[in-house]
Amino acid sequence: MTHDALVRTSEIAVTAVVLVLAVLLLGSLRRMPRNRRWLVVLACLLLYAVIVVPGAAVLWFAAFPLLAGVYPDGVMTPRWLWLPVGALALAAVGDLATGGMWSESPWWALVVNGQLVLLLAQVYRYRRRSSTAERAAVRWVILGTLLTMASFAATQAAYGSIGEGSTGSVVAAQLAVLPLLVAVAVGVLAPRALDVDEFLRATVVSLGTVAALAAVMLSLTAPVWVRLVTVGVVAAPVALGMLHVGDWLIYRGRPDPDRAVTRMLSALNTPTGQHDTPSTVLQAFTSALFLDRGRINGSWFEPVELGPQVPTASDSESFPVMYRGEVLAVLELPPRRGESTLTRRDRRVLDRLLAQAAPALDAARTVVALRDSRARTVAAREEERRRIRRELHDDLGPTLSGIALSAAALATRTGDPEAAQLHREVRMAVDQSRELAYGLRPPVLDDHGLVAALQDRVGGPDVRIDAPDDLNLPASVDLAALRIIQEAVTNARKHGAAPVLIRLRLDDGYLRLTVSDAGPGLPSDVRAGIGMLSITERTDEIGGTARYDREAKGCHLLVDLPLAVS
Amino acid sequence: MTTVVVVDDHPVFRRGLVTLLTASGHEVVGQARGGLEALEVVAQVRPQVVLMDLSMPDGDGFEATARMTAEHPDVAVLVVTLFSDEASVARALHAGAAGYLGKHAEPEHLIAAVEAASAGALWIGSGVERPSFAARPGDEQAALPGGLTARELVVADLLARGLPNPAISARLGLSTKTVANYVSAILLKLAATDRADAARIIRGHLGL
């Protein structure tokens, strides 16, 4: 092919692409008739005309300012921008009319530099006003600009000139504008159809790597083979570094799906209780997506909220955590500050996190359900034992004792050896029933209540008991409280110092008990001893919580026991 | 022969007591099912000894014992109860009871306790948690050291264990002033110079 034929072919190709884009843009207007976007489409068409129509180059000063002012939603932001845009358009038309006279004048520099205002306006709009889709549209343009500039740079590097001299340079220069034209159109037509961020990141990484390596190649003053070896050695580190740069530029350090999952799993792999799992999961989501608030709720735990204000249904999106066909929890996540929705990458991170959070939440739910069920079983068992003991102690016992006394009276009056035998046998039954009742529950607990039982079991001059008058506790709670306090007072007498203070309070459906002493307190390196283990066991059994307050002076055991099992 | 009133809400046990007392040659002159009824019956028949249950739906036995011994100082109240803890024993003795037995007590012990009570002696049955002043093993009948009354003994016991007056008053449900009165009476009877001295004397008496 001759030089002219090649140039003509590329011209035709560019024109064809521009025509197709123009038709698509005009077509998009029909789909949404009541929309200000016709202004953007108009600006795009003007820009295309500047590029493909010979001699219309000066209209750039009408097309570019308009596009920069209204891109991508068709609304001039801020409104006063119409003034500079109008002035620049007027200058362009005037120059066209006067046959290029105006552009020769010294004040024309004002027109050229005036475009800067429009660029600043785009920056302002991007940072303050734009929705997520609009930001994506702008990023398409940035992507197109990068690719076009890179093409120009490559043309310059290959032919030593842009659009002049050799055939290749002219053709390359013509084709180089295509990425920008296509990107502008995509930004208007479907900014979120493809993930612009991934393209942008790949572009930044590859262009940055190539540019850095080219700089190394050109700047060294050594033989060619040395430069080639140097480039070969630094290529991999430079590429890796560029990956990080690209990640930071595009995602601001937000973790990718793999890293987000790794972080969540290691956060879940801590010895905190299964009750905290929903909260941990929520934190994994908000920290992976850089959200400043969020909420998780479900039927088996108290809703957890993060952040300054509760997300409302209007701005948050709901993500159910499904596992084996069941909804375990629902996450409500708002977009990042400044965004109007979650990006495509956010959704990939979300999907991976949701898939990994589901089994963790399922396990937590199972453990919580088991704990509740055990607490219910223990509560029912103790109520039953209390009832049986009461029957044995208050009714069957005295009945047998009365019969024994009557038999003894009979033996005394008649001197009948069979009556004496009867008396002995009934007395054995009396003793059996007493032992049975004693083995079921500590008698003083049910006869006189927890405080009396404490006086009886741990009371002394070194112990003070501070409790409300009427403690009417479930059978499982008073027994657990008695055992826990016995253990704690034993510990305090062994390691601490008098006085030992026992404090009982009924509060918000809990029996809150505190055992504190004036001793040296727990050494910081001491983990749970046998005493603490049995205290924890007793507490767990009925669904309560136990901890040592390490802030306070002395040794302070704090235990909360729920009065009713959920 | 001793005249006795039996106070218990449990019908089978009450009948057993009555039968046993009658068979042992004592006279049951009245029965009651609760503390309030017991006060009326005792006021009418003036027995020598009352067998008193502690936990009754109609009138608590501690309260009835206290009122009965206040109104009729000549009536000896012997507590026969299901409670076997030390605090109940101390409380009952403090209310004025002349003795304390479990309902599971041997028949012969019951009879012996009734006879001891009518003779004005203190009786703490086996099988109940005995306060330390009555803690000598194998000794059902405890002597009152230093001429102390049963009530004073209860306070003296706590004093000997080192409890300050407010703790004693909290333990026995008395005002601190009443406790202070008891303590000075104890010091006087034991001819002690101060609390520590009294505590030492009492500990010696009780073998603590």
Describe the structure in your own words.
The complex is a heterodimer of chains A (566) and B (208). Chain A has 566 residues and is α+β, with helices and mostly antiparallel strands. Chain A has five domains: 3-137, no CATH class; 195-253, no CATH class; 257-367, GAF domain (Beta-Lactamase, 2-Layer Sandwich); 374-444; 447-562, Heat Shock Protein 90. Chain A contains 18 helices and nine strands. In chain A, the strands form two sheets. Chain A has a five-stranded mixed beta sheet. A four-stranded antiparallel beta sheet of chain A has the order 2-1-4-3, covered by helices on one side. In chain A, helix 11 (257-268) runs antiparallel to helix 12 (277-289). The longest helix of chain A is centred in the last third of the chain and has 71 residues, at 344-414. Chain A starts with a helix and ends with a strand. With 208 residues, chain B is an alpha/beta fold. Chain B has two domains: 3-143, Rossmann fold (3-Layer(aba) Sandwich), CATH 3.40.50; 147-206, Arc Repressor Mutant, subunit A. Chain B has helices at 11-23, 35-45, 61-71, 86-95, 107-118, 150-160, 165-172, 176-190, 195-206, and strands spanning 3-7, 27-32, 49-52, 76-81, 99-102, 122-124, 141-142. In chain B, strands 2-1-3-4-5-6-7 form a seven-stranded mixed beta sheet, with helices on both faces. Chain B starts with a strand and ends with a helix. The interface between A and B is medium-sized, with 31 and 33 residues.
Helical amount of chain B:
40-55%
What's the architecture of the largest domain in chain B in CATH terms?
3-Layer(aba) Sandwich
Strand percent estimate of chain A:
5-15%
Major beta sheet, strand line-up of chain B:
2-1-3-4-5-6-7
**Arithmetic mean pLDDT of chain B:** 82
